[in-house]
Amino acid sequence: MEDLENEIIKENDDFAEEIDEIEHESEENELIEGLGESINKQVALEIDPLVPDNNDIDGSSPEGNTEDNQNEKKGIWGFISKIPRWAYIVSGIAVFIIVLVVILNVSGLGEKLVVKIGSIFAASQVDYKQVDESTINYMPELVEDISEFQDELTPIPTATPTPIPSATPTPAPKYEKKTVNILLLGEENIGGGSMTRGRTDSIVIATIDTVNKSIKLTSIMRDCYVQIPDFQDNRINAAYAFGGVPLLYKTIEQNFGIVPDNYALVRFNDFEKIVDSIGGIDITLSKKEANYLNKTNYISDPKNRNVKEGLNHMNGNQALGYSRIRYVSTKDNEKNDFGRTTRHREVLEAIITQVKKLSYADLIKVGMECLPLVTTDVTAEAIETYANMVLDMGINDLNIKELRIPIDGSYNFVTIRKMSVVQINIEKNRNALHEFVYEDNDNIENDANTENNDDGEEKTE
Q: Could you please report the per-residue DSSP string of 44-81?
């Protein structure tokens, strides 16, 4: 009996101990939970002002937010917390673009990128026609009777025909590509339609000379009597009428020893649109030139016959009329086609000057309007190369030079086969053209080697 009582007492003691342990565990859990809540509150107080509330971003507020909690988000972090998420994305893109533009400008890559994109665009707009001498389209039957060229260059024609010029000299050696020659052609085909070719009444070799940092314009007078391959000798402007650009290339090579790198052809009717597109050009007129233009139909639109002596800002119709003047002498007393070729070069120089003033946006507009009017064999790669050549020379520092073929003292006015022509000394003019286009690079190098040494004394090699 006594053993049973002792066992019951022991069991009651064990139960009491278990109850006591359970009570202590509960107290410990409450203490831990209280400590955790305290830590969470402290962390919330420290971090909440620094982290945007998602509910604030979309404009809603969580349930249970009190006025005290909203007052905790003040200052710059409170402002930032209210900025929409899309604004962060837009700002990031803007910053990236700004950094990219700065890098491109500082490195010089920006201008090159614009040139590349512009070259591709330009090449896609022009009327591209490659020069292929193996497929010359001869059209002599569609050309006006050559005897009908009406301009008499001498009051009294020569009694006996002048002999045909002798064979031209051996072609000059090929030069390094420090110079590029682009043949600029103005075709007059008024009323001829698309099935005929007119005459190239404007023939200009435009030279990009990187050695001398120059743009050179050489006019070849249309009445120059030259050898035309596969045809009887004739005026040079008949070469294009007979066989197009390929035959004109061959004619220039045979007579002057220069093969153009590329060409660009514009018809006279489109010339007006080009001048208007760039905003007109500045031309200075003499009193005689102004009176002549206002009294004749060279300016075809009567309302534009209001030019004056002195500086005129001409539109396309006025500039074309000025380009065609033959019967009024220039300030240098050049008449007939001599004066007209001078005016052609003057107009080209005025166009270059005007284009240099245009912004990139204006150039894009001009390109879209004018490039489809140009027929050329210039590719996108060539356009990019030529543009970079000019930019590298410094577009504002370019020196524009001019030459006329024939040069003074190298020609005669004669009549051959009832044609009034300009018979030129081929060899003299060929040499003058090469000297002008390529100049003497050896002399340039020698000039560069003549410099002051470290002691301040001049030294020469």
A: HHHHGGGS--HHHHTT---TT--HHHHHTS-HHHHHHH
Report the DSSP pairing between strands 451-452 and 458-459: antiparallel
Q: Report how far residue 432's alpha carbon sits from residue 94's, in angstroms, rounded to the nearest whole number.
A: 57
Task: Return d(Cα 398, Cα 135) in angstroms, integer.
Answer: 38
Tokens 């330009």 sit at which residue?
122
Gap between the Cα atoms of 337 and 225, Å rounded? 14
Q: Are 307 and 290 in contact (CB under 8 A)?
A: yes
Query: Can you tell me the distance from the alpha carbon of 307 to that of 313, in angstroms, rounded to the nearest whole number?
Result: 9
Distance, in Å, from the CA atom of 296 to the CA atom of 310, rounded to the nearest integer, reads: 19
Alpha-carbon Rg for the chain in angstroms: 42
Whether 321 shows a pLDDT value over 90: the answer reads yes
197-210 pLDDT tens trace: 777 888 999 999 98
What phi, psi does 407 have (nearest 5°)?
A: -75, 165
Contact 354, 280 (CB under 8 A): yes
Under 8 Å between Cβ of 255 and 344: no
- The three-state secondary structure class of 383 is helix
| Average pLDDT of the residues of the chain | 74
Q: Phi/psi of residue 209, each to 5°?
A: -110, 100
Between 37 and 231, name the one with better pLDDT.
Answer: 231
Collapse the DSSP code of 398 into the 3-class scheme (helix H, G, I; strand E, B; otherwise coil) and give the result.
Answer: coil
Domain ranges of the chain: 2-81, 112-442
The answer to whether residues 123 and 383 touch, using CB atoms and an 8 Å cutoff, is yes
Number of H helices, E strands in the chain: 15, 15
Please check the confidence at residue 447 and state whether its pLDDT lies above 90: no
CB atoms within 10 A of CB 347: 21
Check whether 450 has a pLDDT greater than 70. Answer: no
- Report the CATH fold assignment for 112-442: Aminopeptidase (3.40.630)
Confidence check: pLDDT of 174 > 60: no
* Banded pLDDT at 390 (limits 50, 70, 90): confident
H/E stretch holding 93 reads helix 85-107
Across 170-176, average pLDDT: 46
Distance CA 314, CA 311 (A): 9
d(C-alpha 458, C-alpha 450), whole Å: 7
Enter the tokens of residue 255.
């007579």
Tokens representing 375 are 């027929």
Q: What is the pLDDT of residues 130-160, one digit of tens each?
A: 887 666 666 655 444 444 444 433 333 344 4
> Which residue, 380, 359, 360, is CA-closest to 114?
360
